[in-house]
Amino acid sequence: MLTIRRAAERMHTQIGWLDSRHTFSFGEHHDPRYMGFRALRVINEDRVAPGQGFGTHSHRDMEILSYVLEGALRHQDSMGTGSVISPGDVQRMTAGTGVLHSEQNASATETVHFLQIWVQPARKRLQPSYEQRAFPTRDRMGRLTLVASQDGREGSVTIHQDVNLYSAVLEAGNHATLPLEGGRSIWVQVARGNVRVNDSELEAGDGAALADESAAELEASVPAEILLFDLA
């Protein structure tokens, strides 16, 4: 079974410096039909104006991933980490027992466009930690590349949950397939472009849940970038 969450149906926050689309319930936006999918709790597509950003705020008991599509995102936290996240980078922050952090557009002239993803960890009260790795476009071109996993294999960042996160950059006509093992489910998020998932057409911003299927079959109809979550 494949269930589609269309981009235009997402909840929307717009303030002076922030344009954010919420795939699942977030903050003041609550929809009991969309509270997450398996351990996947948040997918926010954020556009932050030049020189602006999220001031210092707290999190706990959550795995937070940042995936930049355009521009650059500056991160600082109470663990002493300071970094800039660029396209192709995957950042993972384990909030665990509690962490303070801020996220700012690193540019004074260009908008930063990124996905903020939250995953519920398998255990609470983990030690806060930070990890960031680069996955160049050439390594993700035409195939599903593992960028986050529970065991950190294949050079992926380590996420404290039974989730495998793949990224793919596809040219028109490219195919990619991920078999679905018994009892697992898949969420596909289209970051840009158009992709056929099994027999359904998805556009940028669309998401789709797959369960009780044998595999996720992807085919790009135009150049596209996708994230695929393989979830217990």
Task: Sum up the structure in keywords.
2% helix, 1 helix, seven-stranded mixed β-sheet, single chain, mainly beta, 232 residues, 22 strands
Please describe what this structure looks like.
The strands form 4 sheets. This protein has a 7-stranded mixed beta sheet with strand order 1-20-17-22-15-13-14. The protein has a 7-stranded antiparallel beta sheet with strand order 2-3-4-11-6-9-12, with no helix packed on it. A 4-stranded antiparallel beta sheet has the order 5-10-7-8, with no helix packed on it. It has one helix spanning 137-140, and strands at residues 2-5, 11-15, 18-22, 40-48, 53-59, 63-70, 73-77, 82-85, 89-94, 99-105, 112-119, 129-134, 145-149, 157-158, 163-170, 175-179, 185-192, 195-197, 200-202, 207-210, 215-220, 224-231. Helix content is 2%, strand content 54%. The model has no long low-confidence stretch (mean pLDDT 97). The chain is globular. It has 232 residues and is an all-beta fold.
A few lines on this structure:
With 232 residues, the protein is mainly beta. Helix content is 2%, strand content 54%.
Query: Which runs of at least 5 residues are low in confidence (pLDDT < 50)?
Result: none
Biggest sheet layout:
7 strands, mixed
Measured distance between first and last alpha carbons: 16 Å
The ordered string of helix (H) and strand (E) elements is: EEEEEEEEEEEEHEEEEEEEEEE
Percent in helix: under 10%
Number of strands: 22
Estimated radius of gyration? 17 Å
Spatial strand order of the main sheet: 1-20-17-22-15-13-14
Kindly state the mean pLDDT as a whole number?
Answer: 97
What coarse outline follows from CA principal-axis ratios? globular
Report the sheet-strand fraction. Answer: over 45%
Q: What is the count of helical runs?
A: 1
Structural class: mainly beta
